[in-house]
Every structure is written in C-alpha cells, then in structure tokens.
Design brief:
mainly beta, 6-stranded mixed beta sheet, 53% strand, rod-shaped
Length: 436
C-alpha cells in the first residue's frame, strides 16, 4: 500500500450505492444505506469496489466498519500504475437519542391556570449530533379535565426517538350552571318591589369552580344574571321580577265656582287617586275628600273667598306615588281670557259656575273712543260662550272687527223672559288685533 493523499474530490451520496463510471475509479456502498445518504443510527459498514483496471489501492480497507458518531470522511485511492484517482466517502452516524427538553403552549392559560378553548401544545428538544428532526405538536380541545397529561416525543435525523416528560394542563370549556335568582327580602307593596332589593343567586360549576355572579341588586323588571367560573367561562340568564320604581305621571288643574271647586287630573298608570283638602271638613285641618279611580272631583259646600288647597296623590300598583297640588278660591268671577289680552281670533269666554243659575247673560261692548257700543247680548246655559267672527244683534249683522272690547256676565234664575239676574259675576276686556 502506498501512503494515501486526500484529494479535493468528494463523492456525492445517493439513495442507493454510488456508481463511478470512469475507466479508472472506485465505487462504495454503506450498510445500512442511510450511512451514505443521510444519518445512520448504528455502526456503518463501508465497502469499496475498485474498477477492473485497478493495479494498486491506497487506504481502501474492505470492508471498513465506522463506529464513531458524527461525520466521518474516508478517502480511497486507486491506480493503474500510471495515475491515481481518489474518492471520498462521507459517513454520518448518530446513535444517541435527542433530548426532549419540555413543552410549551401556543398561548398562556385563559384564567387562573385553566384553558377554556382549544390550545396547541408543542414539545421541544435538542440533539448535538444529527439535530432534531421533529417533536410532537398537538391541539388539545377537550374533554374537560381538572388535570391531564399529554405525552410527547422528539426524533432526530438518524431516527432516534426520546420520550418527553408528559405535559400537564387543566381544561374547562363548560360555563357555570345558573339555577335561580331570588330577592333577599319581601316585596314593598302587594307583591311589587318599588326600590332596589338585594339578589341572591344560586349557581355552580362542577370543574374549575365558581368565581362569582352578578348583579347583586334588582333595579329593573328584567335582570340579566351572569356567572363566571375560575376558568373564565361565563353564563348568562334573564330573570323577571315585579319591579316598578316609577311613579305615575300626574297633571292637576282646579277651577273655582260659587261655593264649589272643580279639581281635575290626568294620571297615567295610576291605580288609585286620593285627594286631601286643606282646610278640611267640619273644622279639621285636613280631610280626605276623594278616594277612587276617577278623573275629577266636584267639591261643594265651600266658603266663597276662602283659599283651599287640594293635594292629589296618584298611586300605582307597586305603591309608587306622585303628588301634585292646586289652590282654588271659590266665588263668582271671570276665568278667561285674561283681562286686557290681545287676541288674533275670537275668544272663548269662561266664568265660574253659580249655584242655582239656570242660565247666564253675557253682554259684549266695543269701545270706540270714550263710547261703549253694545254689540252682543247672549243667554248661554253653560258657564262659557265661544264668540264667532260674525253674528246678528238687534236685527243687524255684527262682526268682531279689530279693536278693544269689554264683556260682562250675570247669572240668571227662572226663565230668561223673567229677567231675574243675580249679582254681576265679573267684567273683562280683550283686544282683537289687526291682521298683519
């Protein structure tokens, strides 16, 4: 054997035994074959096959067992006694399994160390020789568990496998169960609540445990209860309650009459109306003069000229109440239009009712300079008269032309022909504006 010299020619490893088709050359094979084409996990037996015209070889032991881990390059030379040809075989051996160093999730736990929706678990490892080819990677989507272990392994490029330490996780994708929600006290009024009440919620979670529920109070007729477990799952359920904390809408008006007061109201959503008058009846400071579900009160037996205060209270089915008050001074007088007001259209003349009056006499005068010209005398039976744009009086057509007017009202007894009038109820005035 001649001493060999490493030539700068490297053989390319193929999936099968390499072939060198030259007149002078050498082929080689590896057993197992992976030793020539990739990484082998055992010792590799290297065989050389010189061409027929080879007369001498250099460093070509046949067969050659290579046991060292890592990359080994072995160069064989052949000669026909004139020239030398050198071929280098590259052998890769990795007998050691990789080190599976652990596992990691694709994201942090959702809440308190618990996962509540699918998560990827990927194992990682290291290999100092051939390198890590792959490690286990799986997506865990259940079933729910308080603690499970996921097995994994890593493989190197030589095919060596090592199991990893199992990875543990907690998984709960099921929301809590809301069983009931009950007020913490009795209703305020006839089965109804009319101000906030505490709420007792009964719920549970079979796996991660209940973290909390809310709200803690009832403030509306429908309450949406939500509960969360320690894994972050949330359940919601609506509960209805007889809850009403809004008092009825209430509008009140009063109108005086002769020894009487008329009190009217409009109450939306009220179940009962109560009216308290001050001063009250029979010398009392206050008296309830009405209780019911109507829309008005005619309160008689009053003293003309005395001020009466009426407190009207509307109460709904939940016990919510709203009170409005109105003051009325009984007595005969004009109610409208306001004295001296300027109007653009014929007015509605109004005055208080007078006891025992069968009709009223209304007289209208137009004031021209210092003169008052009577233009109307009417006999309405009710305590109001709507003026028209024109009418007939004393056989002549009269019109409500722009200008200043005065009007007077007397109560009448019996029939109009008897001309039995009571005291003057009042005198008023208004102005009709000129069209613009």
């Amino acid at each position: 054997m001649r001493g060999w010299v490493v030539a700068g020619v490297l053989a390319v490893c193929l999936l099968s035994a390499a072939t060198r088709a030259s007149a002078l050359g050498v082929n080689y094979t590896c057993s197992p074959n992976d030793g020539c084409t990739g990484w082998a996990a055992t010792d590799v037996l290297l065989r050389w096959f010189p061409s027929p015209d080879t007369k001498d070889t250099d460093n070509c032991p046949n067969p050659k067992t290579i046991a060292s881990e890592g990359v080994t390059r072995w160069t064989c030379g052949v000669s026909d006694l004139v020239t030398w040809t050198y071929v280098t075989a590259t052998v890769r051996i990795d007998k050691s399994p990789p080190s599976a160093t652990g596992a990691a999730t694709s994201r942090p736990a959702d809440r308190n160390g618990w996962f509540n929706h699918p998560v990827n678990v990927a194992f990682v490892g290291a290999d100092a020789v051939s390198g890590v080819a792959s490690c286990t990677s799986i997506t865990f989507a259940g079933p729910d568990t308080a603690g499970t272990t996921i097995a994994g392994a890593c493989r190197d490029f030589a095919g060596n496998v090592s199991a990893a330490i199992p990875f543990g996780l907690k998984y709960d994708a099921t929301a809590p169960d809301i069983a009931s929600a009950e007020p913490t006290r009795k209703p305020d009024h006839r089965g109804w609540f009319n101000h906030p009440v505490g709420l007792s919620i009964r719920a549970g979670d079979a796996l991660s445990g209940l973290a909390g529920c809310g709200p803690s109070e009832v403030r509306t007729p429908v309450v949406s209860v939500s509960c969360a477990d320690k894994a972050g799952n949330v359940a919601a359920r609506a509960f209805g309650f007889r809850y009403d904390d809004t008092a009825p809408a209430l509008r009140v008006s009063g109108e005086p009459a002769d020894g009487r007061a008329y009190v009217r109201w409009r109450a939306t959503g009220a179940k009962e109306i109560k009216v308290v008058r001050s001063p009250g009846e029979h010398g009392a400071r206050r008296s309830v003069v009405y209780r019911g579900r109507g829309h008005g009160l005619s309160d008689g037996g009053l003293v003309n000229g005395r001020r009466y205060r009426y407190e009207v209270t509307a109460t709904d089915q939940a016990g919510n109440a709203r009170t409005r008050e109105v003051r009325v001074v009984p007595g005969a007088r004009l109610l409208g239009p306001r004295k001296g007001v300027t109007l653009a259209a014929p007015p509605l003349l109004r005055w208080t009712r007078v006891r025992h009056a069968r009709y009223y006499n209304v007289q209208l005068f137009r004031v021209v300079g210092h003169r008052s010209i009577k233009v109307l005398s009417a006999w309405p039976r009710r305590s109001r008269l709507r003026l028209e744009g024109s009418w007939r009086y004393n056989g002549d057509r009269r019109r409500l032309v722009p200008g200043f007017y005065r009007w007077f009202v007397w109560p009448g007894a019996g029939v109009p022909a008897e001309r039995r009038f009571g005291a003057l109820i009042g005198r008023g005035s208004f102005r009709i504006a000129r069209p613009t």
